[in-house]
Design brief:
230 residues; alpha+beta; five-stranded antiparallel sheet; four-stranded antiparallel sheet; DNA-binding
Length: 230
DNA sequence: TCATTAATGTGTT
DNA sequence: AACACATTAATGA
């Protein structure tokens, strides 16, 4: 497999000429991490940016009682990490590979050099990060105002937009998430998620298999619309 | 395949 | 929401 192909799949580098990708490839060696590895944690010095070439990582925080709250999941082609001049929203968060993952590490000075030479790239960074911020704000609002059912459906829709494959009327999440993990994302408990999901299953909004959720996006969206109206 | 562990389902407080 | 416990599915020797 062409090493540069992976770089061309990173969202901020999408239509960069091969010559530039080559330069980046030289600065940012590829490394692979196994499923379950914590790639970075709050106490690390935040001096690097990670380019997620292939795989999935979960961003989460841990509250004082030791419970986890998942901020989000990133898939192929995303960027995360922290440097002084550029934050991707992972500050003070743990980042764990939930699949075997392939990533590049870009050092602060390399990135800055890169951005200085490529203003168009800097703009693309702005777009990507702004979009992430926008989603985060929307999610926060839903989390604050909605009940568990709403939050869960909202989460499933968002996940499905990024990580699902179409199966008839349903979108099948290709993330194998447990009820526990879903609970950690919507700020609820495992039992409540189990109960809520089986209700939604009765209504035909989702279909359940072990560690797998299929969402009827049409029904899910109309549920959210109704909720918004009320 | 069987035993162990993980995930899910359910009733009670 | 928290807990205890039952049931069922996945995992791996």
């Amino acid at each position: 497999m062409d090493k540069l192909w992976y770089l061309s799949q990173i969202n901020v580098f999408q239509d960069l000429p091969r010559s530039d990708l080559k330069v980046i490839g030289k600065m940012a060696p590829m490394s692979s991490v196994d499923k379950g590895t914590v790639i970075s944690s709050p106490m690390d010095d935040h001096k690097v940016l990670y380019l997620l070439k292939k795989g999935r990582v979960r961003l989460y925080k841990i509250n004082p009682e030791g419970k986890q709250f998942t901020l989000g999941i990133l898939g192929d082609g995303n960027v995360f990490g922290e440097i002084e001049t550029l934050s991707t929203g992972t500050r003070n968060a743990y980042v764990e590979a939930i699949e075997d993952t392939l990533l590049c590490i870009l050092r602060k000075d390399d990135l800055e050099k890169l951005l200085q030479g490529h203003p168009d790239l800097a703009i693309k960074f702005l777009h990507v990060l702004t979009e992430r911020l926008r989603e985060a704000e929307e999610f926060l609002e839903t989390l604050a105002l909605g009940n568990v059912t709403t939050r869960l459906i909202y989460l499933l829709c968002k996940l499905a937009e990024h990580f699902s494959i179409r199966r008839g009327d349903f979108a099948q999440l290709e993330l194998n998430l447990t009820h526990q993990e879903l609970a950690e994302m919507v700020g609820s408990t495992r039992e409540t998620v189990t109960v809520t999901l089986s209700h939604l299953s009765q209504e035909g909004i989702v279909r359940l298999r072990r560690r797998r959720v299929l969402i009827n996006m049409e029904k899910a969206r109309s549920f959210l619309d109704r909720e918004e109206a009320s």
